[in-house]
Amino acid sequence: KDVVIKHLDKLTSLKPECVSFYFEGRNETKTKFWFGIRELHNEKCGGDPYTAPIIARVYVTDTKEIFVYNFGCNDYYRIDDYSWDMDCY
């Protein structure tokens, strides 16, 4: 989670205190860890407190590489190569 927070600006303009991380699983060898990143809605951050829209789905490797899921491409990409509007190849 901490490694993703360092690169959060590549995924959203929200501040770290306005996002929440949901652990979604890991592979058997514990080399990949999946997280859902969602908007945190409260008095400080604003928004409807009964909703938590998804910002991104990511996995982090044991070597601290971050991969982001692109819904349109149906695949994961390194965070430095990721864009929500990227062309799928």
Overview of this structure, please?
The chain is mainly beta. It is 6% helix and 37% strand. It has one helix and five strands, in the order αβββββ. It has a five-stranded antiparallel beta sheet with strand order 1-2-3-4-5, with no helix packed on it. The relative contact order is 0.19.
**H/E order of the elements?**
HEEEEE
The whole-number mean of residue pLDDT values reads 94
Q: Stretches where pLDDT falls below 50 for ≥5 residues?
A: none
Beta-strand percentage range: 35-45%
What is the radius of gyration?
A: 13 Å
Biggest sheet: strands side by side, in what order? Answer: 1-2-3-4-5
Total beta-strand segments: 5
Question: Helical amount among residues, as a percent range?
Answer: under 10%
Helix/strand/pairing category = mainly beta
Q: How would a crystallographer describe the biggest sheet? A: 5 strands, antiparallel
- Which term fits the overall shape? globular
Cα(first) to Cα(last) distance is 28 Å
